[in-house]
Amino acid sequence: MQYARKRAKLVIYLSNRSAEVKDKLAKNHESSTSDLSAGLADVLKRQRLSLGLNQAQLAERAGLHRSYISEVERGSQNITIETLGRLAEALETSVLTLVEGANKNVRSLTRPIEILLVEDNEADIYILKHSLHNLKVPTNVTVAKDGKEALDILANSTNTESGITPDIILLDLNVPKKSGHEVLSEVKSNPLLKQVPVVILSTSNDKADIEKSYALQANTFITKPVNQKDFQDTIALLVEYWFVVAKVPGT
What distance, in Å, lies between the first and last C-alpha atoms of the chain? Predict the structure, then answer.
């Protein structure tokens, strides 16, 4: 096989770069093995998919069993430096690129997701916080119960050293003092905030509300399910999309 014939070249590569690679790997000691495995799993899978390869094709390229690739992508298999080198070559990238990507993933896994929830309904606030707790997702939820409070919090996040810009804003349209649409408009017109994803989470299913929200550059519009279980499932899907599937600035 093409990749098997390059084995000697790979050994030389690893011997020349082993000190640098080991230094990168050493930075992961503060994180758990499971976090590192999960970080590598995500990087490897994304690179495989970007090349249009299935697990069997990657296994053949790297001279590994398909079941091993499957375990690696589930984060349930530790990887030696030599095996990582074989995977890097098969994926047309470098060991250092894979390790750096894993390090970035570990940092995003361990840093809480900063969420600004703009909501005045106590029941919905409770359900959302409860849903996040059940997902075992590390989050820091800041609640603003009206539009003015939300804008004050956001102003503080960009104007002070201690302020933390949210990773995502969950915005109800029907909040006091300043409406959700007014908050959305100000966020998207602020160069320091416009990159923050804003998800409209509202009881409204009105076509005009939906069209106006997207015209003001909302990233997503979700009508709150009436059923509590459906609401919890919606929150789970929302978190999975924005913090697993999609890439968000700062995470």
Answer: 39
